[in-house]
Specification:
It is a single chain. Helix 3 crosses helix 7. It is globular and about 55 Å long. The protein has twelve helices and 15 strands. The longest helix has 17 residues. By secondary structure, the chain is of the alpha+beta class. The strands form four sheets. An eight-stranded antiparallel β-sheet has the order 2-1-15-14-13-12-11-10, with helices on both faces.
Length: 358
């Protein structure tokens, strides 16, 4: 939760922007002051990029990528983006459907023959968190097992025989397991590693050269260390195996690369408009952490100040991220943090209000 001093600052700031027009320079200062206050109060460490109609309103980094060695965060610092990965996974599936290599109504047994109930679970169910498959990140043994590097097959073996939570299509519960399976389906259809397909289809054409698989073992230049900050005390977050996250959350990226991603979605040049529009059509209402939204394919869809917002956050040991897009206004808000307990949803909503009120 945001500290009282931050809440008072926000209240005063919102009253200010509502009372008079705010130009880009003033908005830049207001946004910078807000994130600097969060940093001073040890609520935030990371990088921020905010843009409107292609113009960057704020691109700045705060805190340290590595606190032991005094290495500051920069716009080129790479952060684990966790569940923001899901929109890349979803678009990979939609591209394969557009190429007639699969259909969203295909049963997953077509691609993973021995999966229990695979004849009644469809790709659509996986995309929309309506499969009923047990969520492997909710298992009591998950966090201990997450430290161990293991291939997809072993990750799937750990959850495939668990009882289903409900019949496919009966209800909606946010589920990382489905997106792990979606990555496996991409590999089965393309005969390529999941990350290779993303690189060829998205990262290389868009110029996202600082985005990739956040391997636990590989050395990744300019990668931030993950921390937990509680009661003004920093501790190292556990370094979990990202291979297990697969299509649910295996990627790292930078604010600059995610801005390129926003522009690609906004301009609909590299990725077809049909697919990007399909991704953001609300499918089901879903509840997350005491707030409700609608879910499309790999993204949440709601409104802030009557403006449509397409967004997703990511949260994993030592890292929190969010990517918010207001496509009609061409507004993009990217915040990547290496504090694992950063209050992303409150901050994302308040920053959006600051921009929309200006």
């Amino acid at each position: 939760m945001l500290k009282q001093k931050t809440k008072i600052f926000l209240l005063g700031l919102l009253m200010f922007v509502q009372s008079k027009p705010v130009n880009d320079k003033v908005l830049n200062k207001n946004l910078d002051n807000y994130f600097q206050l969060l940093t001073d109060q040890k609520e935030f460490s990371g990088s921020v990029l905010v843009s409107q109609k292609g113009k960057i309103l704020l691109k700045k980094s705060y805190g340290m990528a590595n606190y032991e060695h005094g290495v500051p965060n920069t716009s080129e610092t790479k952060f684990r983006i966790a569940s923001i990965t899901k929109q890349f996974t979803a678009l990979a599936i939609l591209i394969l459907e557009e190429r007639s290599l699969l259909n969203l109504q295909d049963p997953i047994s077509k691609f993973i023959p021995d999966f229990p109930n695979g004849d009644s679970i469809t790709i659509y169910h996986l995309l929309t968190h309506s499969s009923g498959i047990a969520n492997y990140t909710s298992f009591p043994e998950y966090w201990q097992a997450s430290m161990i590097q293991m291939p997809h097959e072993e990750t799937i073996r750990r959850f495939k025989d668990k009882p289903i939570n409900f019949l496919p299509g009966q209800k909606v519960e946010y589920n990382n397991t489905g997106y792990v399976l979606l990555a496996c389906i991409v590999e089965q259809v393309t005969k390529k590693p999941f990350i290779t397909f993303l690189k060829e289809e998205f990262f290389d054409p868009i110029g996202m050269h600082n985005t990739g698989f956040a391997s636990k073992k590989n050395l990744i230049e300019n990668h931030a260390s993950g921390y937990i900050c509680e009661k003004n005390t920093l501790t190292h977050a556990d370094n979990i195996d990202m291979m297990q996250q697969s299509g649910a959350g295996c990627l790292y990226s930078t604010v600059e690369d995610l801005f390129l991603w926003h522009q690609a979605l906004q301009n609909k040049k590299i990725i077809s408009g049909k697919i990007t529009d399909q991704m953001s059509i609300p499918q089901f209402e879903i509840t997350m952490n005491n707030w409700q939204s609608f879910y499309g394919f790999g993204v949440f869809v709601d409104e802030v100040h009557d403006k449509r917002r397409i967004f997703h956050a990511g949260k994993i040991k030592g890292f929190v991220s969010f990517l918010d897009r207001f496509p009609e206004e061409d507004i993009c808000i990217i915040v990547l943090s290496n504090f694992g307990n950063f209050d992303y949803y409150t901050v994302a909503t308040e920053v959006a209000k600051m921009i929309l009120d200006s």
